[in-house]
Amino acid sequence: MAAPARRIHSNATPAKRTERAEDTREGSTRPALHVVKNERAEASASRDRLQQFLEWTRSRTAPFLQIVVSSVFLVATLVIALGLRTQMASNSFESNQTENHIEQLQQDIQSDQTKLDSLQASLPQKAQDMGMVAQQDSVTIDLNGYQPSDGGK
């Protein structure tokens, strides 16, 4: 069964030329409009805006909640990223300082080892200058088969 066609009439259609011409002939004039200021309304305008915003958020809680959650997530992500970058830079700086300290200690060890080697090399000459004689025969004791006696306790 087919539905009958409907016609839509609107007042928004332009007036015909004859109607417009009649309006201008009659000399109809519109009243002049002017703005009336209300001082009390201006003072409470900010409160009204806040009221409207609160009403809007109450009527649309899901989108507002989504906006708040996404904003909090975005801010938290940015703060965490900044914190991680700061920590990485700090760790890099500490690592660099530690490596420099290790290099300095290795140089100190090398210089001390060189000094020790030179002292050991000059030791026999200094001993001869003091009148000491190097030992000709050395005696060694082998304790591999040693077992303590029970009487020593």
Sequence of secondary-structure elements: HHHH
The CA-CA distance between the termini, in Å, is 125 Å
Count the DSSP helices: 4
Mean pLDDT: 81
Largest sheet: none
Shape: rod-shaped
| Share of residues in strands | under 5%
| Structural class based on helices, strands and sheet pairing | mainly alpha
Instruction: Give helix % range.
Output: 55-70%
Number of strands: 0
- Poorly predicted regions are none
Radius of gyration: 51 Å
Transmembrane segments: 64-84
Keywords: Coiled coil, Membrane, Transmembrane, Transmembrane helix
Biased composition (Basic and acidic residues): 16-28
Coiled coil: 95-122
Please supply descriptive tags for the structure shown above.
153 residues, mainly alpha, coiled coil, membrane, 4 helices
Explain this structure:
Residues 16-28 have a biased composition (Basic and acidic residues). The protein is an all-alpha fold. The chain has a domain at 49-120. It contains four helices and no strands. The protein has helices spanning 17-26, 39-43, 45-59, 61-129. The longest helix has 69 residues, at 61-129.
Secondary structure: elements and pairs:
Elements: H1 17-26, H2 39-43, H3 45-59, H4 61-129
Short précis:
The protein is an all-alpha fold and 153 residues long.
